[in-house]
Amino acid sequence: MRKERLEAFSDGVIAVIITIIVLEMKVPHGPELDALTPLIPVFLTYVLSFIYVGIYWNNHHHMLHAAKSINGIVMWANLHLLFWLSFLPFTTGWMGENHFERWPTVTYGINLLMCALAYSILQWCLIRHEGRDSPLARAIARDFKGKASPVLYIAGILSAWMAYAWIGIAFFVTVALMWLVPDRRLERYRSAQS
Which of 47, 100, 122, 185 has the most crowded CB, counting CB atoms within 10 A? Predict the structure, then answer.
């Protein structure tokens, strides 16, 4: 399979995920602005999840662009990532509808952690397939953000479980802000090679 086909399939799945997340926001029953007040937590979780899906979409694109080819293991690793991303509409809706209570927030954090681990597995499979001297392997190098993210997710999960859910949310927002600026390592490496 060509890598472009895998990227197109992934783009389609990610588009569906974003669509399902937005469908969790129900239209209020009332014409007054105060009818929107109960939707604030739902909207905030939508924004956070939209940003996360956008981050994964952007970095997934850059990672596949750096790859020359894929194999069956890479395809399964990609499906593994899409599997965990596809849970985001459920965990997003549950957390928003329950106003950031403990268990919905913990579950959301676990979902984010699993997405991060699945992305790392996909990245590792691509590097293993293409070799340690591949453009992807050279560009990733130390991968500080990739290693720090799971640690921050675990801190957020534990904080939401043992203390207050809003502390967990603060960790999740921190990771999103850390990745909001796209991973430029692949772009820099490609520019240097040109």
Answer: 122
Q: How far is CA 63 from CA 35, 66, 107, in A?
A: 43, 5, 28
Can you tell me the distance from the alpha carbon of 89 to that of 29, in angstroms, rounded to the nearest whole number?
A: 22
Query: Other C-beta atoms within 10 Å of 110: how many?
Result: 19
Q: What would the pLDDT profile of 13-64 be if each residue is shown by its tens digit?
A: 999 999 999 988 888 888 999 999 989 999 999 999 999 999 999 999 989 9
Residue spans of the domains in the chain: they are 3-193
Question: Taking Cα atoms as reference points, which of 126, 136, 131 lies closest to residue 185?
Answer: 136
187 burial (CB, 10 Å; 0-12 / 13-18 / 19+) is middle
Residue type, 174: T
Alpha-carbon distance 82 to 9, whole Å? Answer: 10
Task: Read off the pTM.
Answer: 0.92
Number of H helices, E strands in the chain: 9, 0
What is the sign of the dihedral through the CA atoms of 136, 139, 144 and 145?
negative
